[in-house]
Specification:
This protein is an all-alpha fold. It has four helices and no strands. Helix 1 (about 1-40) packs antiparallel against helix 2, helix 1 packs antiparallel against helix 4 and helix 3 (about 75-105) packs antiparallel against helix 4. The longest helix is centred in the N-terminal third of the chain and has 41 residues, at about 1-40.
C-alpha cells in the first residue's frame, strides 16, 4: 500500500520533469532557429533595403524564442497561453520576412527554405502547446465559454 502511495506522489513530478525536458528541447530549437536567422540576416545586401529587412527579421526571429522562454517559467495558464500566442505571432512575422527575402531574391533560396521549414515546425509545436492550454481551461471551466458583450 505504501509503495502505491509513493508512486502516486511521484507521478506528477515525473510528468513535470518530462514536460520540462520537452520544453528545453523546444527552447534549443528556437535558439538554433534564431542563430539561422542571424546568419541569414548577415548575408543580406548591405544597402538600405537589406539593412531594413535584416533589422526586422532579426527582431521577429529572436522574439519568438524569447517568448518561449517565458512559456517555460509561467505557472498561470492564462499567461502561458498569451506567451504562446505571442511567440506564434513573432514566428508568423518572421515567415513573412523570409518569404519577402525569397521573393525579392535578396538571398540564396536554400537558406530561406530551410528557415521557413524550421519556422513551420516551431509554429506547429506552438499550436499544439496552445491547444493543450485551451483544452485544460475548458475542462476546468466547463464545456462552454462565457462570451463578453461590448
Amino acid at each position: 500500500m505504501k509503495q502505491q502511495t509513493r508512486q502516486a506522489r511521484l507521478k506528477p513530478i515525473q510528468q513535470s520533469q518530462t514536460r520540462r525536458s520537452a520544453d528545453d528541447q523546444v527552447a534549443r530549437e528556437f535558439v538554433e532557429f534564431a542563430a539561422g536567422v542571424l546568419h541569414l540576416a548577415s548575408s543580406l545586401p548591405h544597402n538600405v533595403i537589406g539593412m531594413y529587412v535584416a533589422k526586422r527579421l532579426i527582431r521577429a526571429g529572436s522574439h519568438s524564442g524569447e517568448k518561449f522562454e517565458e512559456v517555460k517559467v509561467t505557472a498561470n495558464r492564462d499567461e502561458l497561453s498569451d506567451h504562446v500566442a505571442s511567440a506564434a505571432k513573432s514566428l508568423r512575422e518572421t515567415m513573412y520576412w523570409l518569404r519577402l527575402i525569397d521573393k525579392a531574391d535578396l538571398c540564396a533560396q536554400t537558406q530561406v527554405e530551410k528557415l521557413v521549414h524550421e519556422a513551420e515546425s516551431l509554429l506547429k509545436t506552438l499550436r499544439n502547446r496552445r491547444g493543450k492550454c485551451r483544452s485544460s481551461k475548458l475542462s476546468r471551466k466547463g464545456s462552454h465559454l462565457a462570451v463578453r458583450r461590448r
